[in-house]
Amino acid sequence: MNPLRAYDINIAGLDNKRHEYDFESGDAFFAALDQSLIEKGNVRTHLVLDKSETMIRLEFHISGVVEQTCDRSLDLYDEPIETQQMMLLKFGDHNEELSDEIELIERNTSTINVARYIFEFIGLALPMKRLHPRFRDEDDEQDDEVNGKLVYQSGTPSDDDDDTDTPNEAIDPRWEALRKLNNN
């Protein structure tokens, strides 16, 4: 049996009101999707489906952990996932993705499968830079400083700077010429 069948919701028989669903996604879920971004994980999804005459509003609350490979050390680690996303499915004459949050579905659609949405929202919740937690504090410090010097500082130089020993350096004549043009 296809593990993604558990994510089918029969919308043809639903009343026009609010419905709630809970899904547990494990390793079989990620393997069935035929992708290489996530191979293992344990994720819970609480879905609120609000059906009306013209559309279906899907509100996802996804939490859990997925196994990732550190970009720096290639060690495996568990990345926590916590996200809330919304999707609108509007009834129309054909199937079409209008934007990231809005899709058209045919009026006679009887079943929707939410597995693809859950996986996409998990992928969006993952950080672009996959670092093992032991490297994250170290990486934050390196973002602020390079070799002990501040990379960029706005405003006037403070008294602590080493560069205050030299008098104001001569301005490059090319920049001076540009300033004169700007002042005219």
From TrEMBL:
Protein name: DUF177 domain-containing protein
Basic and acidic residues bias: start-end ranges: 171-184
Top-rank taxon: Bacteria
Residues covered by region (Disordered): 136-184
